[in-house]
Amino acid sequence: MDKQQAQQLQIAALPPEIESEHFFEGVEKLLEVWFDERATGDLRNITRNQWENLLRHVKCEIISFTQNEHIDAFLLSESSMFVSRRRWILKTCGTTTPLKCLEQLLKLAQVEGYTVITDIFYSRKNFTRPEVQNSPHKGFYEEVTYLDSIFPEGRSYCLGSINQECWYLYTFSQPEKEGEEEEEDEVKPNQKLQQLQLQQPADFGDPDQTIEILMQQLDNDVMALFTKDKFATGQEVTQSSGIDLLLPQMHIDDFLFDPCGYSMNGINDKGEYMTIHITPEEKFSYVSFESNVALDNYTRLISQVIKTFKPGKFIVTIFANKSSLAYETMKELEIEYSTLSNWQRTDMQCCNFPSYNLLFAQYSRGKSS
Ligand SMILES: C[S@+](CC[C@H](N)C(=O)[O-])C[C@H]1O[C@@H](n2cnc3c(N)ncnc32)[C@H](O)[C@@H]1O
């Protein structure tokens, strides 16, 4: 399906939650899977037809595609999918069922020689209307039970307030099997270090980091841009809203839904990505920004995103592995947004996982803003 066909499909088959109740769940389910770097396969060998079949389990379709030498970026009818040599990211909103495609993913990856998953992250904010979701996404407990049946050693967390706004995470990291390697290869410590360095992933290298900004209660005038009343194409909105200025090196693929709604993927020459999805309806407005761009300071980017969309409240999450420069951002967020601005930080938590550190922070507008 191309962009033109997608426009026609929207008229023919709006999701039931839009048609009957004028509600759309913008909050996405985000799934990121990393496979063992020692395997020589490439997930980008998986064909478009195979991805389309996999996405049938999720209940969404491909509407556009871009790529460069590092990464394939798919724009979906409900958000995005990014495929690199050994990393797969699926972000879907509405009433989609991304966990249902995991078994299919593992089969396709196995054909590429990937039999070991090194890291998995499944995360999402609390839904606005959990009761309209389909199994296994009717609640976090159901999602965890489903994931546990595939990854018995996974761990689940809830950050933020469980009776108000919160963010759920399920994660699993494969422990390094140092003993096994020594037995097999009988290498001395310094030889072993050299070998491990050679095994660093060649396409992305270390470090790795991901920032997400999840915004709600957005400014009506800004949201009015993301409608067919104002613009005909995604490209026009990307420029008028200032989205093209957020990370200027990104090659952008955008889509404006009819009558409203917007999605974009951006990829740059380093293989980094950004993705923005917008549900502009006033009663349940929602915007998500996500990127793995490597910065030593995310404060300016966060400020620019906030100024562009003008939310009433937002959540920031930053994953950074141990060698990532993003670690420093934790301190900056505390100063910049709590004491020097009109934003009130309502929650902040930091977690240390085996290979990643995580920052979660939640903000709402102070009384004077
Ligand atoms: C797919 S987009 C972006 C969703 C994203 N997760 C977000 O951040 O809100 C959803 C927006 O597009 C609108 N929309 C219009 N036609 C649609 C369709 N056929 N499928 C999904 N969304 C559609 C929805 O009402 C909503 O405003």
UniProtKB/TrEMBL annotation:
List the SUPFAM superfamilies.
S-adenosylmethionine decarboxylase
Cofactor info, note text: Binds 1 pyruvoyl group covalently per subunit.
GO BP terms: spermidine biosynthetic process; spermine biosynthetic process
Tell me the superkingdom of the source: Eukaryota
Reported EC number(s) for this entry are 4.1.1.50
The reaction(s) catalysed by this protein are: S-adenosyl-L-methionine + H(+) = S-adenosyl 3-(methylsulfanyl)propylamine + CO2
Site location (Cleavage (non-hydrolytic)): 78-79
Any Gene Ontology CC annotation: cytosol
Broadest EC class?
Answer: lyase
Keywords of this entry: Autocatalytic cleavage, Decarboxylase, Lyase, Polyamine biosynthesis, Pyruvate, S-adenosyl-L-methionine, Schiff base, Spermidine biosynthesis, Zymogen
Spell out the coiled coil positions from the record. Answer: none
What is its cofactor? Answer: pyruvate
Q: Which residues bind substrate?
A: 24, 78, 257, 281
UniProt xrefs under InterPro entries: AdoMetDC-like, S-AdoMet_decarboxylase_euk, S-AdoMet_deCO2ase_core, S-AdoMet_deCO2ase_CS
Q: In which pathway does it act?
A: Amine and polyamine biosynthesis; S-adenosylmethioninamine biosynthesis; S-adenosylmethioninamine from S-adenosyl-L-methionine: step 1/1
Q: Where's the active site on this chain?
A: 79, 93, 263, 277
Residues that bear Pyruvic acid (Ser): 79
The UniProt GO MF terms for this protein read: adenosylmethionine decarboxylase activity
Family affiliation: Belongs to the eukaryotic AdoMetDC family.
The record's annotation in NCBIfam families points to: SAM_DCase
Q: Which PANTHER family match?
A: S-ADENOSYLMETHIONINE DECARBOXYLASE, S-ADENOSYLMETHIONINE DECARBOXYLASE PROENZYME
Protein name as annotated: S-adenosylmethionine decarboxylase proenzyme
Could you tell me which species this protein originates from?
Drosophila albomicans
